[in-house]
Amino acid sequence: MCCIVAGSVHDYTLMKDVFTPGSAWFEKVNLWLDLGFLGADKDYQSTQIYLPHKKPRKSKKNPNPTLTPEQKKQNRKQAATRVIVEHAIGGMKFFHCLMHRIRNHLGHFVDYFFSLSAGLWNYKIC
Questions:
Q1: The Cα angle at residue 68 between residues 66 and 69, in degrees rounded to 5
Q2: 71 and 122 together in one domain
Q3: Of the candidates 72, 78, 25, which has an alpha carbon nearest to the alpha carbon of residue 47?
Q4: 40 partner at 20 to 30 Å CA-CA among 16, 17, 104, 111?
């Protein structure tokens, strides 16, 4: 099923609308999320939730906040995993039918666009 929303909708807000917090949606899978999903570890149960470490805020006590080398290493490892998915989504947008508003009343028509774009992109990268 395809869920099309405006680009102005925040990712985590959309996730909470589609997948009800507290339910068992992600119990048996690992979640690789970015910092746009802060709070998902409290709202959802999962085998493992991978969130990058957030840089601490600047304050009087900590005027030069930085992440530890271990945290930076973990963030790079997570980013290397997530970038594969991000490139696949970006590659599907290469086919401009996904970037523009589709003015069609047939709901399944949008699903065809996604399926065709994913198939063509997979064919291109093989």
A1: 120
A2: yes
A3: 25
A4: 111
